[in-house]
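Handout, page 2. Input:
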Amino acid sequence: MATDVKVQRGSSTIATSSSSVTITAGVDYTAPSAASKAFCRITATKNLTTVTADGTVDEATAYASVSQTDITASVTFTRSNSSATRAVRVDWEIIEYIGADGGPNEFVVRAVGEIALGAATAESVTTGAISGIVTDADVVPWITGVRCDSPNFAPRNASFTSSWNSGADTATFTRVRQHNTNATIGYAIVEFTGSAWSVQSVEHTFVAADTNETETITSVGAPTQAFMHLQCRHGDSVLDDASYQAWISSATQATFYAPVGFSGTFIVKGWIIANAGMTVARYNDATGTGAGTFTKTVTTVVLEDTSVDEVSGSIAQATASMPGEILSFRLTDTTTVTGYRNRALAAHNYRFATIVWPTAAAGLTIATPVSIRNTAGPGRPFSLTQSVGNGKRMVITQG
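Output:
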């Protein structure tokens, strides 16, 4: 049985001396049924992109944001520098809800856009009010990609975490400012409206290097039915101060790791999305010391049902060899995730998860047993409201 979520993916290139590349519905992907049902995101560590070759490079050329005003027609990936001498690799996924309206696994894309920090010295920026929000606790302000215009210190200036401002219905994006640099954040405001979802966030500030540090989370039932959309902000651009690993390690715990040599300010935020109908499998390994692609074998999945997320990677190398801290990941066949990095560096320890999205039958979990008896009489209309957990209600009607 197919899931209630359809995944499409690809790898695109912003060519040398170009500022953007566009993927087109009907050519590069199948058009979603509505813009409110789908969003596109970059599948790389720190929600960033990387150049396609080794060597010294203007780091600003390596990062792209996602313009998806009408995803039913096209999506454009844009960088700041149109005269760069290096191409940019963009691995992407389009995630679309294809289940029934009002179904237990439904999510709604309330808004997509790009927002720029108005001043190069700004540390945060806030959107206008997002319309249509029903439940603030169900909202994830997804960072879909970031671009910045600095040839120096780019990773720290392009690394953001998001927060949702309940009541105001706005999203704020924050970085640790260390250098005067403009930046533009691509975002998707996604509300997980279905009764089977639960959403929470966790934030961790690193204290020590080469140590597994933990944060307590509200139980997700099991690590295999939840994943984190990871974001970070940091104050340095040396690789061992600008890379990390993070994963859900138990039903009530998330674990965070900074590499040997780490120091400084580094904060990781995880938006935790849970559903009893999902199947989440986690993998960790290390790259070699060379540049280019690497692969990891995964348990067999159906491509259209599965995403790659919770991506992170740490490298114990005390050099400012950006954008060498960025790894991209893409599911390339039913048993293989292919990664990419552009620089020959020390081995890179990485993690990712494959997420098999839920089906309607699997997604609904009733918190307490319920029996239904129509006391209105045979053939008479009736309605029943029942709690199904996570603060959600199920309504059954007949008539």
